Queue: 2 jobs
Job 1
Amino acid sequence: MTNSEQTSVLITGGNKGLGLEAARRLGEQGWTIFLGSRDQGRGRAAADRLTAGGANVIMVPLDVTSEESVTAAVRRVREHTDRLDVLINNAGASGNGVAPADATADEVHSVYDTNVYGPIRVTHAFLPLLRAAKNPRVVMVSSGAGSMTVVTDPDQPVSKMHELAYSSSKYALNMITVRYAQALPEIKFNIATPGEIAARKFAATDMNNHTGQLTVTEGTDSIVKLAMIDADGPTGIFIDRNGPAPW
């Protein structure tokens, strides 16, 4: 069993990018890190690197598109703790950037399976462990592309990103998070975007071929901030690293 006083966090998509950096930063705070990874080899390698740096890390095989995998992940976490303080739904899919005229339902569905249904699967499965914590928090990793204000602003680069799957999936994730927050006030449900919306900047990750202007550490500022809020903190909010993000 882990130390009963040690804060625990499960991070989906934790083997690289924003997920791995959030794991590193929270591991430095002395948290127990359950590092979720669809690719077990990469997950073990990432966990080994963090462990070598002094973090307490347990690798959890986790494919958020699979009910069977999510159920097994709950069993794995329960082997180490009787509660989960924080869940970070970070795993995401960008889709293929298919133009709206060419997009099919299958294309959109594949992205929704990770970006929308995935967080629902994982959140639902881990609710009992979250409810067992004193100050449970859920952080949904969204995007400025999930903001109607941003997408309809011609000065924002994402307004010219003509696709259906990714932006609409993040918009849906934002709504889902708000509805969770309203229905489950005993758990903090909040949304982070890794970018700086006003500055029109985004974090450099594999998803954008590392073309972003922000470092992966800067990109996790909003995620880490929401993961660390106290019992008097907000719920149902959407932020970037500089503060409130527009809906």
Job 2
Amino acid sequence: MARTVDPARHEARRLVIIDAALTVFAERGYDGATTAEICRRAGIGSGTFFHYFPTKLELLLAILTLGIAEVREQAELYADRTDPLGVLLDIVERGADDAADPRMPGFVRAVGGIMQQPDVAAKLEEDARTQRDLLLPWVEKAQQAGQIRTDLTPARITSWLYLLTDGFLGRIADEETFTPHTEKPVLLETARRFLAP
């Protein structure tokens, strides 16, 4: 008789593996990360690892997919908000807060090293599209409310806001002295000034 699977336990173990992998990818890069080290950090055996993730690439894609899901959940959290400019600034701030995870610079570099792989490129494009889809309706609402500039189309403003947050993450990964704690206020001020009517 087949053993029944507890979905909550299954998902919890999956998230432990993902968390361990994020740490190992950040420390060693994609090529330097081994499934043995990920298993050691997660406190599991290799059989368990391969039950959840057939390959190291599938695990990296799962991390990216989880990030996309978190952006979609963020959209749901804002659904009842009535202050479009406040939402836009919250989105920018949350991007800076996410970049403050000490593993993020190394993970961004790890992904950058394999971003030419078709599956990774497609997942990164999905992530970018999801981020823009989060921003665009709030840009439109903020323009309609007269809270932000109207000399640029909503799509262009959205692209620039995405550029600010994505570029911020890129600088964190590329420049050791560019720290989220120090630079976050500048990012928010830049976003405010850019959006100002």
